[in-house]
Amino acid sequence: MKVCIGLSGGVDSSVAALLLKRAGYDVFALFMQNWHDTTGTLHGDCEWEEDRFVAEMVARKIGIPFYFVDLSDTYRKRVVDYMFDEYSKGRTPNPDVLCNREIKFDAFLKCATGLGADYVATGHYCRKDEIVGADGKPVYRIFAGSDPNKDQSYFLCQLTQEQLSKALFPIGDLDKPEVRRIAHEADLPSADKKDSQGICFVGKVDLPTFLQQQIKPKEGDIVEVYDAYFNENAHYRSVISILDSLKRDDFKGDVPTITDYISETKSFSGESSSLKFNDRCNDRFSTGNPENEGGCSSVSEFSREKISALDDSSLMELSEPVRYEISFETETYRSGKRHIRKTRYKENPYGRIVGKHDGAQFYTIGQRKGLNVGGHKDSLFVIATDMERNIIYVGEGHRHKGLSRNCLRIAPEEIHWIREDCPMSIGEIRRYRVRIRYRQPLQDAFLIRRECGLFILFDMPQRGVTPGQFAVWYDNEEMIGSGVIAQ
């Protein structure tokens, strides 16, 4: 059996190649160049040249043939142009997911097949197996990697059954220290090479500089939103009411609507709105319970029957973010000994203009760095962007109401089932574990299928729900499907 290993010059793909060789496969290495332009990259030179040099040394050390392919035109059209288009619309794409779907397991796969390969292997930390479906045909399943700190299944969430049928992941059962150990014992040139960072095949970039290749800067206002705005906002109050109506009859207390954690690994120690929710927060990094539906860790505060009875318009309202409409009036006043006439904004109970930015398209929900606004006790976070008016809305502190959401929607055309043999039918509700970004601990949720899309209602509110990113759902450790977050 002939296997093409996508050799990147990193330690993961190097060890994958070594293990395949040791297992007796007929292995050859293929290095792909996907990017030429260094504009916006922080290293400022051609990093791919060093990667190719290391990859070639690794192939020589292992004793396998080495080939090179330039896929930069395809990468620009399918990945980078998509990035520019999404950012220009105020959405935040995930280029690594697109790279796997469009490049590694499409353009690269075709090239490898042309060189005689039966399979393509990569250094991803994930696992794959094969079962027989109800129709007697093979069904390929993909699971999280054994190392929870390096699980990369999220990046493969858009692969199809056809692509998975040709894929191998030799290091999926290993953890990173073991991979490093194997590389050192084999004296591989990549043994001490640091993990790559930034955009797939582009590297670590200054994102605004990178995007300004095609998106023009345009100065706009940064508006801080106060808590009072939510108290008066009809949509926000309606969402609270809908969530409250979905509570199980035996659940006492308020449904939480503010994320009770600071980062993916730290939570607040203060009291939350209910003891039960506080207990759930302390357990938010649990590995789930295989005995429960979807592997979810515990029983939800929400009632499945009440969710089922909810009409589509209420679900749409539940999934939509708060829209910010804050206007500022000016007033004139006299200042100084000479009473010079000046203009200032009147006090507004809902917010204030706190700074300027170079373009709303350069910012994303949940972003903290790069705002350059001082005078606050806690950090400011981006809670929304208005592309038409070129405004960034921000909120102070991790507990700001604009940072958290309980529900999101995936449009019908964006729903992707890795397990094509078990899609959800209209009206069906399932329990799955979900993540909305790489390395986020899996979150318990209801998936609700309706004509207008797939709704994901989380047991706990989620921080930084970002349009354009991928929501991915798992049954225990098996990745079942994914979709682009609508708004």
Characterise the protein shown here.
This protein is of the alpha+beta class. The chain has a domain at 2-211: Rossmann fold (3-Layer(aba) Sandwich), CATH 3.40.50.620. The chain contains 12 helices and 20 strands. The strands form 4 sheets. Strands 5, 6, 14, 15, 16, 17, 18, 19 and 20 form a 9-stranded antiparallel beta sheet that branches. A 5-stranded parallel beta sheet has the order 3-2-1-4-7, with helices on both faces. It is globular and about 85 Å long. The two termini are 45 Å apart.
Task: List the keywords.
single chain; 487 residues; alpha+beta; Rossmann fold; nine-stranded antiparallel β-sheet; five-stranded parallel β-sheet; 12 helices; 20 strands; 25% strand
* CATH domain class name of the domain at 2-211: Alpha Beta
Distance between the termini: 45 Å
CATH architectural category of the domain at 2-211: 3-Layer(aba) Sandwich
Number of helical elements: 12
